[in-house]
Specification:
Layout lengths: L7 H55 L19 E8 L5 H16 L5 E9 L11 E2 L11 E7 L10 H6 L3 H7 L3 E15 L15 E8 L5 H17 L4 E11 L4 E7 L2 H13 L15 E2 L5 E7 L6
Parallel strand pairs: 3-9
Antiparallel strand pairs: 1-4, 1-5, 2-4, 2-10, 5-7, 6-8, 6-9, 6-10, 7-8
Length: 320
């Protein structure tokens, strides 16, 4: 009968084989751990990169708008797509006190609210030309006639102004604030959403980010339904590109109303009054608001005394 005891050589071979398996498993385990650690580090780096990218996008949204002359790409998603616009007049008595309250208390407090981004206060420039006879104007006593001052407050989007609504904010003011608001004469309000914009040639040199420019031309109006498509085409194909090609144009915003009498709005923004006086009319002349040389301007119904050109009085213009 053969002995069941293993030979010495077999024992050594089996020992070496077991040791080899342990070494292989140890190496494989180490490689797997290293691979897992590498993937974890790669994941952390990827998440860090995404966070940095998101932070960068947010910073860009809070800073300057995307640049690109004549661009109307809806994917740009400007940070300030909602505008609360107020037109009004003021009496001589109490005007300076009102300005001190508005610029020193009211607007700084509003800009602390979530979603509010900037504010700009304007005084009408072309007072004599307001309500030019070449435009048709609404004749409705419920639509305020004021236009000497224009206050623009910008937010992330128009829904920011829905909670709370402006009337609720004003109802909660202290007595001094209510007294100041009561000085406004012929007040008219629109809350508008920006449906498109183009960036002008002067945009790259503009250092105040999204804040309203030193000089503006602002129109608010209604258009017969049957002419709205042609009007849209006229703005997109002709008017906005022509205006943004002018040397002093910072940007143009096409607006649609959420609250207020006027359904449509257009905000032309210029780097200076001198540039506006030089470039605005020439850009208008070569871009009729329509198609095939036709213009829908004669059928538009403008707000009282509009459109309005105006100069910014707050924030103060930076010194040259």
């Amino acid at each position: 009968m053969k002995s069941l005891a293993p030979l010495e050589g077999d024992t050594v071979a089996k020992h070496d084989e077991a040791a080899g398996r342990r070494d292989f498993l140890k190496a494989a385990s180490g490689a797997a751990m290293a691979l897992a650690a590498g993937k974890e580090a790669q994941g952390r780096a990827s998440l860090k990169g995404l966070a940095a990218s998101a932070k960068g996008q947010n910073a860009a949204a809070q800073g300057e708008a995307p640049r690109g002359r004549g661009r109307t790409d809806p994917d740009d998603r400007p940070a300030d797509r909602g505008l609360w616009i107020t037109w009004y007049d003021l009496p001589d008595q109490g005007r300076e006190e009102y300005f001190s309250w508005l610029h020193g208390n009211y607007l700084p407090a509003l800009l602390k609210r979530p979603g509010y981004l900037w504010a700009a206060h304007y005084a009408a420039h072309d007072v004599e030309g307001a309500g030019s006879s070449r435009f048709h104007h609404v004749d409705d006593p419920k639509v305020g006639m004021g236009y000497h001052y224009i206050l623009i407050i910008a937010a992330r989007d128009a829904h920011v102004f829905g909670n709370p609504v402006p009337s609720t904010i004003h109802a909660a003011l202290l007595e001094e604030g209510k007294k100041m608001l009561a000085l406004r004469v012929g007040e008219r309000v629109n809350i508008m959403t920006e449906d498109g914009r183009c960036e002008g040639r002067a945009g790259n040199a503009y250092r105040e980010g999204l804040t309203g420019t030193p000089c503006i031309q602002l129109g608010s109006f209604n258009c017969p339904v049957e002419n709205e498509e042609e009007m849209l085409a006229g703005y997109v194909q002709l008017r906005l590109p022509a205006m943004c090609e002018s040397a002093s144009c910072v940007r143009v915003r096409r607006l649609s109303s959420v609250v207020g009498w006027a359904k449509h709005g257009i905000l032309y923004e210029f780097a200076s009054l001198e540039g506006f006086n030089r470039d605005y009319e020439s850009a208008i002349a070569k871009s009729p608001l329509g198609l095939g040389g036709h213009s829908v301007v004669p059928v538009l119904i403008h707000a009282p005394n509009g459109p309005n050109s105006a100069l910014r009085i707050w924030p103060p213009l930076p010194k040259a």
